[in-house]
Each structure stands twice: as structure tokens, then as C-alpha cells.
Amino acid sequence: MRILIQGAAVIKRPEEGVIPQADVVVEGRRFAGIFAPGGAGGDFDKVVPGEGKLLVPGFVNAHTHLPMTLFRGLAEGLPLQEWLEQKIWPAERKLTGEIVYWFSLLGLAEMIRTGTTAFADMYFFMEEVSRAVEEAGLRALLSYGVIAPTPDRIEPELKRAESFVREWHGAAEGRIRCAISPHAPYTCGPEVWKEAVRLAKEFKIPVHTHISETKREVEEHRERHGRSPVQWLEELGVFAVPVLAAHCVWVDEKDIDILAAHNVSVAHCPSSNLKLASGIAPAWAMLQGGVNVAIGTDGAASNNALDMIWETRLAALLAKVRAEDPQAMPPPEALRSATQRGAQALGWGRDLGVIEEGYLADCVLLDLGAPHFAPGHDPLADLVYTACGADVEMVMVGGEILMEGRELLTLDEEKVLARCRELARKFR
Questions:
Q1: Is the pTM here over 0.85, yes or no?
Q2: Cα separations (Å) of 101 from 64, 255, 305, 391?
Q3: Domains (range + CATH), the chain
Q4: Which of 3, 64, 398, 418 is deepest in the core (most CB within 10 A)?
Q5: Please, what is the Cα angle at 113 between 112 and 119, to 5 degrees?
């Protein structure tokens, strides 16, 4: 399949700014070149009109929990521990594979509509999440969330995580990769972490976890272990493998130095951290300290959306507030965290996150015709500060168009919505 995206403004790499108009060629699963308007030769199986539109690398959601679309609006106004213990964990005991499958499809539809092309997810019934991803056409780093607070839970939880990796790593023609996911230092002890590292080394996959999300979590960990969660995990040898660490809201300079030294990627989840009153992560300080900071939405229960464009704007604005510096996280850096750095965090750094010859053709086309894009002095700044998910018109993953003209092509949206509304009645 040879596709021409004709005459669009193009952001190849955020740090290079915007090409006012270009033709982009996709051959098979990868970009085949960027040309001056009219400069792409040969025949094409499909031509996508790009005039008046902006083509950008696909957004990478570095941390979410897809099936938690079920809990959107269900548990409001609570801090993290109470939110988990009083509302979310009891509700999760009612989950079934069927419920997880349909609400994963719901989350996938929302992500496609708002420009996400790849994401990292940890949850339960992950076989059903994988099945939904396979059908929808997105790219994903998936893992079973290991929660083992007592010794009797350790072996069965780890076996389930390993079984999932063996079944799904490399599935969907390589669009699905797997990770090992101990939920957090406060739900998994040293034995779990050491075995997770062993499995990560065996399968050559990353560890995906939550670290230092709340002040209470870090204070209790220091009281129990005499050191921060980051320092504790370093001593256990966890950072000997690639690690994707969600949140990192309460990290100090020593923690940041450790994260940078071990090439740990951080998934910054600003909406979730604000809604649960967890705090504002020092994202700009981490970036300046050499940490690969990506952006994630977290689950829809604590966001309540999966819109990466909104999340990117929020990350940029909060960085300025936290640093007390209006120049902190300028638009190119925010967009890099939402694309290139996210791709690196998921292990696709050499294949995703930019629009260049040889890279996988994961991209998003936005319509610039809405009033909030006028007068258009700086399209890149407009993308970060004024765009919204509803501006996304076309989404492509690996050369396959998943949405065109704002119409989903791989999912029956009406059927998904109807089934999810029916299943949600059991939780009211």
C-alpha cells in the first residue's frame, strides 16, 4: 500500500518546528519520504488531502488503565489511598473478562478520536485488553498489574504476569509488546521486585510501575525503610532493566539523579495528580536533570479523559507554575514528551515519535480550520496550547488508517457505546 498525504503542514520533529507545506509518502508500514509539494513521484493507492491541516507524529500515552473507563465519574473527591481502598478496589472485584474487553474498546475509541497511536497499560484481565487492542489497530505496551501485599499472593500473581508475557509479547504483528508490572513499592515486597527484574531480563522487556505518587506514600516508605521508594528500588537492583515509572510526583534531587543515571523513563500524569490532590510533579526539573519524561493520562477514573492533547497542554502549563518560570517546558519540549519521549519510554524510540523516512508510519492529521487556530502565527504553539482532541481528523498506525474524516474504521463505535452503557448498570 502506497499512500500520499498531500500538502499538509508537517511537524517532523518538534525541535525543528513546522514545515509550512509538504507531501508525505507512506509505503507499507513506514514513512518513505517528505517532499516539497508536488515532488512525490509515482502512483499511489490512496491520496489523503492535507491542505489546511497539520500532520504530527502520533501521540504516545505513556501510562493508562484502559478498562477504567468503566469507573469514569464513579468515585469523585477522594485522595488516592481512600479512592483506591474505599471505591476502586471494591468495584474492581466485580470485573469480568467481558467487562474489561468492552470498556477497553471504549477507551481505544476515545484514544483514536483524540490522536493517540501508542500507549502503555497495566491492569487485570489483560488478555481481553490485548484482544481489544488487536482489533482496534493501536500500538501498546501491555502488562498484568501484580499486587502481592501478602506472601500467599506472590507466586500466583507472578505466574499470571509471566503467562501473559509468553502469550502476547510480539502479538498483532508486533504492535503489542509486554512489560512486567509490580504495581508499586507499597503493594509489592522485595521478593516480587527481584523476580520481576529476573523476568524482565529473561524476556528482554521493561518494568512498568507506579513510584512516589503521593506525599503520604513516600513518607510512610521512608519511615518503614529509611529511604525513598526510588532509592529503595535502586538498592534492590530494579533499575538494572529498563523501567517506566508512572507519576514520580514526590521525588527530590537525589531521586532525580538516580532516575537519570539509570535511564528510567517517567510517565508524567498531570490531570490524575491534580484530581487526586497528589501534587505537581517536577517534570521540568526531571527533564533538565536528564530524565526521559513522557506524558500519560492515567486511567479515566482519575482523569476523567484519555485526551493526550489536553494532557500535553496541562503538562506544559504546570511545568511553568512548578518552576515559577514561563519559559519552562516550551511547546517543542512538551510535544517531544508527548511523542518522541513517549516512544522511547515504551521501547520504540528507534522506530516511532518522528515523521521521517524509515520510521513506522504512526501519525495524526489535525484540521486547522477551527477559530481557535487563527490567525496561525505559531502552529506548534497552537497545537500545544489551543488544540483539542476534537480537532483530530485522521489517525494512522503502521500505515493503516484507523480514523478518516473523523470516522472510526476499525471499531463499531455505536455497538461499543451501547454495550458499555448496558454493562455499567451493574456498578450503579
A1: yes
A2: 15, 37, 18, 27
A3: 2-57+356-408 (2.30.40.10), 59-345 (3.20.20.140)
A4: 64
A5: 30
